[in-house]
Automatic annotation (TrEMBL):
Catalysed transformations (reactions): 2'-deoxyribonucleotide-(2'-deoxyribose 5'-phosphate)-2'-deoxyribonucleotide-DNA = a 3'-end 2'-deoxyribonucleotide-(2,3-dehydro-2,3-deoxyribose 5'-phosphate)-DNA + a 5'-end 5'-phospho-2'-deoxyribonucleoside-DNA + H(+)
Protein name (Swiss-Prot/TrEMBL): Endonuclease III
Keyword DNA repair: yes
Cofactor note: Binds 1 [4Fe-4S] cluster.
Gene3D superfamilies in the record: Helix-hairpin-Helix base-excision DNA repair enzymes (C-terminal), Hypothetical protein, domain 2
Job description of the protein: DNA repair enzyme that has both DNA N-glycosylase activity and AP-lyase activity. The DNA N-glycosylase activity releases various damaged pyrimidines from DNA by cleaving the N-glycosidic bond, leaving an AP (apurinic/apyrimidinic) site. The AP-lyase activity cleaves the phosphodiester bond 3' to the AP site by a beta-elimination, leaving a 3'-terminal unsaturated sugar and a product with a terminal 5'-phosphate.
Binding residues for [4Fe-4S] cluster: C188, C195, C198, C204
A Pfam family matched in the record: HhH-GPD
Upper classification of the organism: Bacteria, Bacillati, Bacillota, Bacilli, Bacillales
Family matches, as PROSITE patterns: ENDONUCLEASE_III_1 (PS00764), ENDONUCLEASE_III_2 (PS01155)
GO BP annotations, alphabetical order: base-excision repair, AP site formation
Membership in a protein family: Belongs to the Nth/MutY family.
EC number(s) given by UniProt: 4.2.99.18
EC top class named in words: lyase
Originating species: Paenibacillus naphthalenovorans
Length: 230
């Protein structure tokens, strides 16, 4: 039986990144939740630099609430949108203490109710902290899925997630999430993807378009005294 396009893609990225994993440093579900919250519109590398000292100073939800908001803002000021994220962290910690005895809930529907925690963050937490299969769609997963035709170019993030969940076997959801991130972060980059070396080029309209542009550069022609690119 001939393997499906999805199966070929999954097997290929598995060969390229067999050890793909969550690159946010953490030692428990609470730290992971804080780290993922901080990672919105920010690189994992920057988050890890900040949390290296942040997680030494703040161990529990109570610790984040024991300091003025301005102090927490300064502690994470290297992170994009740090003021808003500081507010969300304190509100999240207050809710954890009020409703969950200071523990991060395991249920996805409870996680998304926490301040600053959206569907992507909840998926990362349940899959990496609690071992529940999930596919979190970040910018890398979205870009790669659309380029390889696993999702439509105009699909929303939620539509991308649903299509991946339908096409990828459930037991592979979490690992596929990590591998798609690694593939997008280190190979199929937004600005300078490695199309010439890509083993999945035949499935990628974006890659074919980029290579065609490189091999057939724009020609200039004259039309009514003006230079026109064709």
């Amino acid at each position: 039986m001939k393997p499906t396009k999805t199966r070929i893609i999954l097997d290929q990225i598995a060969k390229m990144y067999p050890d793909a994993h969550c690159e946010l440093h953490h030692s428990n579900p609470f730290e992971l939740t804080i780290a993922v919250l901080l990672s919105a519109q920010c690189t994992d590398e920057t988050v890890n630099k900040v949390t290296a000292t942040l997680f030494q100073k703040y161990k529990r939800p109570e610790d984040y609430l024991a300091v003025p908001l301005e102090e927490l803002e300064q502690d994470i000021r290297r992170i994009g949108l740090y003021r808003n994220k500081a507010k969300n962290i304190q509100a999240l910690c207050a809710l954890l203490l009020d409703k969950y005895d200071g523990e991060v809930p395991r249920e996805h529907e409870k996680l998304v109710e926490l301040p600053g925690v959206g569907r992507k963050t909840a998926n990362v937490v349940v899959s990496n902290a609690f071992g529940v299969p999930a596919i979190a769609v970040d910018t890398h997963v979205e870009r790669v899925s659309k380029r390889l035709g696993l999702a439509g170019e105009k699909d929303s993030v939620l539509e991308v997630e649903k299509k991946l969940m339908k096409k990828v076997p459930r037991e592979e959801w979490t690992q596929t999430h990590h591998r798609l991130i690694f593939f997008g972060r280190y190979h199929c980059k937004a600005q300078n993807p490695k199309c010439e070396l890509c083993p999945l080029l035949e499935y990628c309209r974006e890659g074919k378009k980029r290579l065609k542009t490189k091999t057939n550069p724009s020609r200039k022609s004259m039309s009514k005294g003006k230079t026109v690119k064709v």
